[in-house]
């Protein structure tokens, strides 16, 4: 079954609880809404598209579809439905990602070698697990349903993360193709907001940081705590392509004094002269997008830049990147343009645990905590983030050289 390509970017808000009065029905509806969104995003892709793995950091679409299915089979059906038999004995090995305590797994960089199972077999796997999961919801007691609801919610948010990765990964794959194929020919970069009032001032003070309350959050967003922030001012607007073109024209990519040592070494080794996916054709800059190759729009926020590039740009501007705490304080006040839904924004904060952090028990404790080293925090969300998956306390994280994600920046400066 196929759907129009534009439908693949439609989103749903998977609220677990409604006014229906039936937790089983609420869970089933939320579960199927998210699962169907994954299939909508995969629908424009051929079986050949779904197999490709263009670099070790990316995964094939087929693998994303199967891995998110394995997650529910492993942690929900396998642990909460006595007698459940896995759909296929090899799938746990093929589609486990990094859950060491859940068993051995296929090497990440070799996921593109999996010509079997086919996309059709992965579709059958998804349908089998979907049907079994919905049946489980309707057969469990109310008390048991309440016990597993948090696990279901983790699984749904986990799948939404992979929905975003499906788009970032296929864009990287298509960018390697000399004919520059389009994922969705009708796709357009989201419109951004601009304000003449350029800066948001944050006075020095003790501010609340982290997630408070019982609504969904990942464990790395807690514990909520208080921190000294400011005085500082944050740019109300995202950095644009026009500003980045000025940075390039000033020879910044070949000026070592603007760069961290590792950053300049990376930029030199990778021959970076522009953001990711930019190409100069007949003297004009173009960029690979989900709609194929398009002219660079000077007014649009710059996208696909690494932390190293963002840091160098900030230094060239005489500014710096905000800390994640500064970003969160400004984000809570609602004073930042395009905080969500355009590009993830680099901060200068290392991805590390909050004071008092404890990973959850069991295999799901491997979800976030073991990655808290050598990575930087990004805040906000991107054009590929599913609706309902953003919040002001969300902590995304990537290595400083990564730029295949929809990543950009806003500047910060010390308050006068």
Characterise the protein shown here.
By secondary structure, this protein is α+β, with helices and mostly antiparallel strands. The chain has 2 domains: 171 residues, Up-down Bundle (Four Helix Bundle (Hemerythrin (Met), subunit A)); 216 residues, paralog of FGE (formylglycine-generating enzyme) (Alpha-Beta Complex). It is 34% helix and 12% strand. It is built from 10 helices and 12 strands. A hairpin with a 2-residue loop joins strand 6 and strand 7. It is globular, with a radius of gyration of 22 Å.
Give descriptors for this structure.
416 residues, Four Helix Bundle (Hemerythrin (Met), subunit A), 10 helices
Give the helices and strands, then pairings.
Blueprint: H1 23-42, H2 47-51, H3 61-80, H4 91-95, H5 119-139, H6 142-175, E1 199-202, E2 205-209, E3 225-229, E4 232-235, H7 241-249, H8 261-269, E5 278-281, E6 284-289, E7 292-295, H9 307-316, H10 324-332, E8 344-350, E9 376-379, E10 396-398, E11 407-408, E12 412-414
Parallel strand pairs: 8-11
Antiparallel strand pairs: 1-4, 2-3, 4-12, 5-6, 6-7, 8-9, 9-10
Helix pairs in contact: 1-5, 1-6, 3-5, 3-6, 8-9
């Amino acid at each position: 079954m196929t759907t129009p390509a534009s439908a693949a970017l439609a989103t749903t808000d998977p609220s677990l609880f409604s006014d229906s009065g039936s937790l089983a029905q609420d869970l089933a509806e939320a579960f199927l809404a998210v699962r169907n969104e994954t299939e909508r995003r995969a629908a424009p892709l051929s079986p050949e598209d779904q197999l490709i793995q263009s670099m070790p950091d990316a995964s094939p679409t087929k693998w994303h579809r199967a891995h998110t299915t394995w997650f529910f089979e492993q942690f929900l059906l396998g642990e909460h439905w006595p007698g459940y038999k896995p759909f296929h004995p090899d799938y746990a090995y093929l589609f486990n990602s990094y859950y060491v305590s859940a068993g051995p797994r296929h090497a990440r960089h070799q996921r593109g070698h999996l010509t079997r199972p086919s996309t059709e077999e992965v579709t059958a796997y998804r349908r089998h697990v979907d049907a079994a999961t919905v049946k489980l919801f309707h057969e469990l007691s109310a008390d048991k349903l309440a016990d597993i609801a948090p696990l279901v919610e983790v699984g749904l948010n986990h799948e939404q993360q992979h929905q975003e990765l499906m788009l970032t990964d296929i864009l990287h794959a298509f960018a390697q193709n000399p004919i520059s194929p389009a994922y969705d020919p009708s796709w357009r970069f989201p419109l951004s907001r601009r304000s003449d009032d350029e800066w948001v001032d944050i006075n020095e003070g003790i501010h609340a940081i982290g997630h408070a309350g019982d609504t969904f959050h990942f464990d790395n967003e807690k514990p909520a705590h208080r921190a000294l922030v400011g005085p500082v001012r944050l740019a109300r607007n995202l950095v644009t392509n026009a500003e980045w073109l000025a940075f390039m024209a000033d020879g910044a990519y070949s000026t070592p004094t603007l760069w961290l040592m590792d950053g300049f070494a990376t930029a030199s080794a990778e021959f970076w002269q522009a953001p990711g996916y930019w190409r100069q054709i007949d003297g004009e800059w173009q960029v690979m997008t989900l709609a194929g190759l398009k002219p660079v729009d000077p007014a649009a926020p710059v996208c696909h830049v690494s932390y190293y590039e963002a840091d160098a740009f900030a230094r060239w501007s005489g500014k710096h990147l905000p800390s994640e705490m500064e970003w969160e304080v400004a984000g809570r006040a609602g004073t930042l343009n395009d905080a969500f839904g355009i590009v993830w924004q680099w901060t200068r904060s290392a991805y590390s645990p909050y004071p008092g952090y404890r990973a959850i028990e069991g295999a799901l404790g491997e979800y976030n905590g073991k990655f808290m080293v050598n990575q930087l925090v990004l805040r906000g969300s991107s054009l590929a983030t599913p609706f309902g998956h953003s919040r002001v306390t969300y902590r995304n994280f990537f290595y400083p050289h990564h730029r295949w994600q929809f990543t950009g920046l806003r500047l910060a400066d010390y308050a006068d």
